[in-house]
Amino acid sequence: MVEGGLWRRWVFFYIPLTLFVFVLLFPFYWMIITTFRPDGELYKPWNAVAYQPFWTNNPTFEHILYLFEETMFSKWMFNTLLIAAVSTVISLICGVFAGYALARLNFPWAGGLGTTIFVTYLVPQTLLFIPLADIIRNFGLGDTPWALILTYPTFLIPFCTWLMMGYFKSIPKELEECARIDGASRFQAMYHIILPVAVPGIMSAGIFAFTLSWNEFIYALVFLSSPEQKTVPVGVTSELIRGDVFFWGPLMAGALLGSIPVAIVYSFFVEHYVAGLTGSVKG
Amino acid sequence: MAQVTIRQLNKVYEGAVHAVKDVNLEIPDREFVVLVGPSGCGKTTTLRMVAGLESITSGDILIGDTVVNDLAPMDRDIAMVFQNYALYPHKSVYDNMAFGLKMRKFDKAEIDKRVQHAADILGIQQLLSRRPRQLSGGQRQRVALGRAIVRNPQVFLFDEPLSNLDAKLRVHMRVELRKLHERLGTTAIYVTHDQVEAMTLGDRVVVMKDGLVQQVGDPMTLYNTPANLFVAGFIGSPAMNFANVTVVGGEGGLWVETKGLKLRLPGALASRAAPLTGKSAVFGIRPEDLRVANSADPAEYSMDCEVEVVERLGSETLLDTRVGSETIVAAVEPMVAVRAREKVRLAVTPDRMHLFDAETEKAV
Fold this sequence. Notes:
The complex is a heterodimer. By secondary structure, chain A is mainly α. Chain A is built from 14 helices and two strands, in the order αααααααααααααββα. Chain A has two domains: 1-60, no CATH class; 62-278, MetI-like fold (Orthogonal Bundle). Helix content of chain A is 74%, strand content 1%. In chain A, helix 3 (62-70) crosses helix 14 (248-278). Chain B is 26% helix and 34% strand. In chain B, the strands form four sheets. A six-stranded mixed sheet of chain B has the order 6-7-8-3-9-10, with helices on both faces. The A-B interface holds A 172, 174-175, 177-185, 188, 192-193, 196-197, 281-283 and B 51-53, 72-74, 76, 78-80, 82-90, 99-100, 103-104, 132-133, 147, 151.
């Protein structure tokens, strides 16, 4: 908190905070208001009489209905959910084991290997999709959910591995040593002691991975072509922008509905999420 | 219960850090042995090798008659108490204590019996359903001990178990640990950097420095006849005074001499010091073996000092004094009427004098 007089608190705290919150939340507000605004109001020119950009007196569900009746939105939601969930599970399993190995098993080149994994995460997707597209084509996976389920881990596994590696390092190694003296094998010590203690870290990695795959755009755009295979971000933008015509109402409705699952996931796990980023519980 | 034998034990880490050098140690059944030394002296590494948490570069470790070098920690039948307690944070106190027994497939009734018995010994019955984070430091310490006791192992290993406790609790737990050992009689190896813990807990104390064992002995042997300069300075509080002196021949035998200080060596010490005549040596005297001299004290066993600081501790008074270029601390009777910047004459107890070879640092 800012020390000093009232004016200082306003100048250095409340006003910047308000600006910050406004900048962050205004796009969401715009998305929500556009979703419920009838077309007649949406396409009114800005200098028309009684132009009212920030509010509507005639809220409508027509855009949402359009989305479900005239497009394959529910199928896109299902696709996105399936792809995000499966690739998250795959990445978590690999990330937990790899992170544990890098943090705890003293094998030669562990440090170098960890760095290499991190470097692969830094390769931009906008470059990586080119070779990946070739691989996907060779395996005949194009235009199937597998194209994304198998390519998302290319950036999710490095991410999960690094997050889990950091988390495992923050767990005192005596816990595990004690378990091993107590009669557990390395695997039992990991299963009975380390994994339960690492749950906040695993959840953070899972939420992050889920969000990244849910929002992913470029691979989904490149690897999927038929409308019934698309994910929400790609489906909404490719089917609701036809040429240079933007169907703003359904577009925003799709964006709104598409962001709800992520918002739910975040709000449910936010405490664990923060704990995961700030380190483990001390014994 | 079993004896522990350590033979020619060495540990070299990658990057050629030689942490433990040729350690030999026989620990008979039921003995409480303390490894003590400054940080980095190899005491913890030695303990971890006994536990099986650290690989052995060369040498042998035997528990009972079995060479355990290549046995996994779980197969060595030991229990270890860690400095940070290493309680499993997601398990209740009961499950923390039961975990080792569950892993070893004990039946439920036996587990319950043992946990209750250990909780009884340690006075933690009312805490069994709590989580570690709901416990105070002392309670966690007890749970960690309980987890070791339930297993009824051949050897207890302690890795600085008291150093996370505050001073008062530490003294209390020290006594508890000693009582526990009297009661259970399990062979124990205890690592600490605190010489008071070492002296009070150990049947025998092993002083280590730079990976080498400096001296092994019961506490009073270490205190009365330290083998070298390091042990002399490490054991005892306040620490032994040292002065760089020259051994010279003179009236009535051998003397040690430096600026402002000239003392005659008593008979036995003088005969041992004879080869050092004319050479430099280190003279040592413990603060508690000095007192304010009276007129009856002979001049050859007293020295004139200038008091710099007077520290009154209640039970005794410490005089920080200067003799020539050396600082000498004396622990004298509490009510002594001396003030800072005064001159005082201190008398040495002759048979408590120590002399060390300046080159080898070994006791003469």
